[in-house]
UniProtKB/TrEMBL annotation:
InterPro entries: HDAC_classIV (IPR044150), HDACs (IPR000286), His_deacetylse_dom (IPR023801), His_deacetylse_dom_sf (IPR037138), Ureohydrolase_dom_sf (IPR023696). It comes from the Bacteria. The keyword Glycoprotein does not apply. Residues 41-268 form the Histone deacetylase domain. This is Histone deacetylase. Keywords: Hydrolase. Belongs to the histone deacetylase family. Pfam families: Hist_deacetyl.
Length: 295
């Protein structure tokens, strides 16, 4: 079922309100509806979903996920995926959509792992393709961990370009094959990371010519992250976000930003990085997107 999930340190409860307050000060904060199960079944094995809905999972599966099963795990998956779908609709309407959660990129079609039950971005990307509202989708995954579930789900889908820039010596320890994988060494830092985006990612993306973008803006690349190893500075993370989002805006590409991972030892640093990503998105697109609430 994949490598054991790392231990997770959540943002302390007392810091959730400041994060939401900071987001709400920038633009309206909306709750998203739960994802319809039928859309999840377009990506995930229906038998897998049925077992998880009913709680018929094994200890091995729980260990791979990183959580014990509970109804809240299922509800969180539906909420996170519903928020990304709502953000996708926002992007089609005004150019930008934001989910303050999301990015559960370790979920495979038939099993959960790495804190990921449903693959929210894969579900929304599949909905775009099936509904004919996009034909060439870029999934740019800049979380510190490889987006292995997403890579596996779209391994044979030529209309989706999966790109993952991640720490080489990090979870998942058995990687899948994305369309473009950029594994980076521990302690990479700002200059080498941004150089990889410019020299290795940009030409491949330009050649693909997407008409829709999903951006997983993981804050776990930030120095001090408990599960990250790339050690970007706060300024480096902001330059990363600006590069990606300004490019997408200049190209006129509808873009969804999801926040993905972040487990910093300093909750204030994590909040600042999250709000910095939101500022970068709003600054690039200059539109009144409405980020979906916490999933």
């Amino acid at each position: 079922m994949g490598s054991p999930a790392p231990r997770r340190q959540f943002l302390p409860r007392e810091f959730i309100a400041p994060l939401l307050d900071g987001a709400a000060a920038r633009l309206p904060l909306l709750d998203a509806p739960d994802l319809p199960w039928a859309l999840a079944e377009a990506v995930h094995d229906p038998a897998f979903l049925a077992r998880w809905r009913d709680g018929r999972v094994t200890r091995i599966e729980e260990r791979a996920l990183g959580f014990a099963w509970s109804p809240a795990v299922v509800e969180r998956g539906l909420g996170s995926s519903g928020a990304t779908l709502a953000a996708t609709r926002d992007a089609l309407s005004v150019g930008l959509g934001v989910n303050l959660g999301g990015g559960t990129h370790h979920a495979h079609a038939g099993h959960a792992e790495g804190f990921s039950f449903l693959n929210d971005v894969a579900i929304s990307a599949r909905w775009l393709l099936d509904s004919g509202q996009a034909s060439r989708i870029l999934i740019l995954d800049l979380d510190v961990h490889q987006g292995n579930g997403t890579a596996a789900i779209f391994a044979r889908e030529e209309r989706v370009l999966t790109v993952s820039v991640h720490a080489q010596n990090n979870y998942p320890f058995r990687k899948e094959v994305s369309d473009l994988d950029i594994p980076l060494p521990d302690g990479t830092g700002d200059a080498a990371y941004l150089n990889a985006l410019d020299r290795e990612v940009a030409p491949v993306v330009a050649a693909f010519a997407p008409d829709f973008v999903y951006y997983l803006a993981g804050a776990d690349v930030l120095e001090g992250d408990q599960l990250g190893k790339l050690a970007l500075s706060p300024a480096g993370v902001r330059r990363r976000d600006d590069r990606v989002l300004r490019w997408a805006a200049r190209a006129g590409l509808p873009t969804v930003t999801v926040m993905a991972g972040g487990y910093n030892r300093d909750p204030h640093a994590l909040i600042a990085a999250r709000l910095g990503t939101l500022d970068a998105a709003l600054g690039a697109f200059g539109c009144a997107a409405s980020p979906a609430g916490p999933a």
